[in-house]
Design a protein that fits this description.
heterodimer, A: 147 residues, mainly alpha, two-stranded antiparallel sheet, 4 helices, B: mainly alpha, elongated
C-alpha cells in the first residue's frame, strides 16, 4: 500500500493527540515555539537523509511509499517523519512535565487542558516549576511560553 | 566502520556537546527529560520496528552501511542514536525557544 508510511505517521499524530487535549501539553497551542523547535532539526536531518540516500545507506520500498520525491531524492514521507516524530517527542516532554508538576500540587489549574485561548496569559503552576527546575536557565523567565 | 554507524555516533556526540557547551538548558538533569526519553524509546521500537521489519520493510538498509546488529525486532541499533539525536535536539531547541520568548 503506497500510503503505508504516511498512515503510520498519521497514527503517531492521532495517538499523541490526547497528550495535548487531555493532559494539557500545550504544544500545538504554542505554534511559534513549535516551529522554532522543529525547523532546525528538520533542516539538519533533511541533509543527513539526502546524503544517506545519495550514498546508499538506505532506500524506501516503492510498495509502501507514495513516490513523491523532494529535492535530493528525499521522499515526502521523510519530511513528514521529521515533523511528526519531534512533535510526538515534545508532546510527551510537556505532558510528562505537567504530570510531574501535578503530582506535587493537585491544585494546579486544570482549565489549561482545554484548547482555550483564555489560558494564554495565565501561566499554570507547573510551568513556573519547569523553569525553576532548569538550573541552566540564564534569565528569570516567567515560564509563559506562548507564541 | 560503516558510514551510518559513524554518522550516528557523530550526531549523538554533537547533540550532547551542543547541550553541555552551548545551549545549557539543563534537561539532562531533569526527570522530565529522562522519563520522556524512556517513553519515546518504547514507542520508537513499535514505529521503527514497523518501518524496518525484514519481512516487509518500508525503509531498507544497505547491509554494508550499518553495524549489522538489528535489535530489538529488526531495528538497526544505529536508529536509536538517530532517534535520540532528533528528539533530544528538538527538546533543546524547544527549551531555547521558550527561553527566548520569555526574555
Amino acid at each position: 500500500m503506497p500510503a503505508e508510511y504516511l498512515l503510520l505517521m498519521l497514527a503517531c499524530v492521532a495517538i499523541t493527540l490526547p497528550l495535548e487535549f487531555v493532559l494539557g501539553a500545550r504544544v500545538y497551542r504554542r505554534p511559534r515555539r513549535l516551529v522554532l523547535a522543529v525547523l532546525p532539526l528538520l533542516v539538519i536531518f533533511y541533509v543527513w537523509d539526502a546524503v544517506a540516500i545519495a550514498r546508499g545507506h538506505w532506500d524506501y520500498s516503492p510498495a509502501h511509499t507514495t513516490g513523491w520525491l523532494l529535492p535530493f531524492a528525499v521522499p515526502i514521507e521523510e519530511v513528514v517523519f521529521f515533523i511528526v516524530i519531534p512533535l510526538c517527542g515534545l508532546l510527551t516532554f510537556e505532558a510528562v512535565g505537567r504530570m510531574l508538576g501535578k503530582r506535587s500540587d493537585a491544585s494546579a489549574a486544570s482549565s489549561s487542558s482545554e484548547p482555550s485561548p483564555r489560558s494564554r496569559n495565565v501561566p499554570s503552576l507547573p510551568e513556573f516549576r519547569e523553569q525553576e527546575r532548569v538550573p541552566g536557565a540564564k534569565d528569570g523567565g516567567t515560564g509563559v511560553g506562548d507564541a | 566502520m560503516p558510514e551510518y554507524t559513524v554518522a550516528t555516533a557523530v550526531a549523538v556526540v554533537a547533540v550532547v556537546a551542543v547541550e553541555l557547551l552551548w545551549a545549557r538548558t539543563g534537561i539532562f538533569r531533569t526527570a522530565q527529560y529522562w522519563i520522556t526519553m524512556a517513553i519515546v524509546f518504547f514507542f520508537q521500537v513499535l514505529v521503527d520496528g514497523w518501518l524496518t521489519k525484514l519481512s516487509d520493510p518500508i525503509v531498507r538498509y544497505a547491509p554494508a552501511q550499518f553495524a549489522g546488529i538489528r535489535f530489538p525486532l529488526d531495528i538497526p541499533i544505529e536508529d536509536f542514536g538517530f532517534g535520540f539525536a532528533l528528539v533530544t535536539g528538538t527538546i533543546i531547541a524547544w527549551q531555547l525557544a521558550g527561553r527566548k520568548e520569555t526574555a
